[in-house]
Write a structure and sequence with these properties.
globular; single chain; four-stranded mixed beta sheet; two-stranded antiparallel ribbon; 10 strands; alpha+beta
Length: 177
């Protein structure tokens, strides 16, 4: 499913939901047509031909499922492992903003850092979509107990902040600072 901003006909990155105005070039998967910033899909240089990880895996007949951390199906996906076991596929942004996961620098996959906490988050209801399909993150505002799926909050344009030390902080729309 290719997304274009209906008002401006601008390509929208399916990893961060921002358009071309972010200053980072957008590439298109040569197989499925999904758009992504080179920075979001971890491409160092603009490649003439790019294939997303999900399409790469499909040529090896790897069975894929929707994101394991949210109920939303569209977006740039990566593989998630617990030790050596493949848990499934997840959106890049669901992995980036989930404190229970860590990125692998070798082949751009994600690994579970805190299994106990992740399984707890898989049982929490999202304040946006009202389901427990996936792992929710908690608003970073002190004292706030609102939980949400990363993709649900991005579609609702909740604020997300990245510190100078590259720590990621999700906030609900009710944050006060």
């Amino acid at each position: 499913k290719i997304k274009k901003n209906k008002m401006t006909n601008v390509k929208t990155c399916q990893a961060c939901y921002l358009g071309t105005g972010s200053g980072t070039p957008i590439v298109t998967c040569s197989k499925c047509g999904i758009f992504a910033h080179t920075e979001c899909c971890r491409i160092d240089v603009l490649q003439k031909k790019w294939t997303c990880a999900l399409c790469e895996a499909s040529k090896f007949n790897i069975i894929t499922k929707p994101c394991i951390f949210c109920p939303n199906e569209e977006g740039v996906m990566v593989q998630v492992y617990h030790y050596t076991k493949l848990l499934g596929w997840a959106h890049i942004f669901c992995c980036d903003w989930n404190p229970c996961l860590g990125a692998s620098q070798q082949n751009f996959t994600f690994r579970v850092k805190n299994w106990t906490e992740l399984t707890k988050r898989m049982k929490i209801k999202c304040s946006v979509c009202q389901t427990t399909n996936g792992a929710c993150v908690q608003c970073y505002e002190t004292g706030c107990s609102i939980f949400f799926h990363v993709s649900c909050s991005m579609k609702q344009q909740y604020p997300f902040y990245q510190s100078t030390s590259l720590e990621l902080f999700p906030f609900c729309p009710f944050k006060t600072t």
